[in-house]
Amino acid sequence: MTIVAISYRIQVSQIQHLVPQELELEDQPIMTSLFIHYGTSTAAPSSLGREIFGYPKIFGKVNFHPSAGSRVMMGNVERPAARSLIEFELAPKAILGNSVGDATPPKVLNLRVIPSTNPAEPALREFVVVDMQFEFSERWSGPGSLKFNKGFASTPWANLDVDSYVSKAVLGNKAERFPL
């Protein structure tokens, strides 16, 4: 598995309309985008059904583009297929320490939504606190960025401008990489 994780601050006005009114936000909340390549697996059923922690199961098609002659990790997210919604890059420069906190995001508050099968009844909405611990054999930080391709009616949540970056990391496990 390989993960590119980029945390950044945005203006609350850009997401306030997407967040339930019960949740109070800072003026510049921290958001984290995770771009995940799961590798080859026979566990296709893991992508079906509901995700118990409130993460969307299928956000879009994540593409990693290896950079010839460079360690820069580049990629994009397509939604729908063939339309680039987000572009990202990260140049690994420094090894992150062995501390769990170096490679693990802070506690996350997700909003899990389960639509109602009866249009007359409301959907189930609940906050889910997630405090996961990850273990990776490779942990790197370095300069990086992401860009939201804004203006699509079907993805208004992607109309974001990054104010500042908080952290950028590439996390991976060699054991799950297979030679071609």
Structure description:
- It comes from Gibberella moniliformis (strain M3125 / FGSC 7600) (Maize ear and stalk rot fungus).
- This is Acetoacetate decarboxylase.
- Pfam families: ADC (PF06314).
- With 180 residues, the protein is mainly β.
- The protein has a single domain, classed as Acetoacetate decarboxylase-like.
- 2% of the residues lie in helices and 38% in strands.
- It is built from one helix and eleven strands.
- The strands form three sheets. A five-stranded antiparallel β-sheet has the order 2-1-11-9-6, with no helix packed on it. A four-stranded antiparallel β-sheet has the order 3-4-5-10, with no helix packed on it. Strands 7-8 form a two-stranded antiparallel ribbon.
Strand/helix succession: EEEEEEHEEEEE
How much strand content do the residues show?
35-45%
Largest sheet: 5 strands, antiparallel
Helix tally equals 1
Overall helicity: under 10%
| Domain module tally | 1
For the largest beta sheet, what order do the strands appear in spatially? 2-1-11-9-6
Architecture in CATH? Beta Barrel
Key features of this structure:
mainly beta, 180 residues, disordered C terminus, lyase activity, ADC_dom_sf, four-stranded antiparallel beta sheet, Acetoacetate decarboxylase-like, 38% strand, five-stranded antiparallel beta sheet, Acetoacetate decarboxylase, globular, 11 strands
